[in-house]
Amino acid sequence: MTTIRAAVRSAYSLSTVNWVTAGFMVVFHVLAIAAFWSFSWTNLAVAIGLHWLAVGFGISLGYHRLHTHRGFKTSRAFEYFLAVCGTLTLEGGPIFWVATHRQHHQLSDQEGDPHSPRDGGFWAHIGWILFGDTHHNNTEMMGKYAPDLGRDQFYRWLNSYHWLSLILLAVGGWGMVLWGVFFRVVFGLHATWLVNSATHMWGSRRFETRDDSRNSWWVALLTFGEGWHNNHHAHPVSARHGLAWYEFDISWITLKLFNAMGVVSDLKVAKVREPMPVEEAA
Question: Which domain holds residue 157?
Answer without folding.
Answer: 26-205
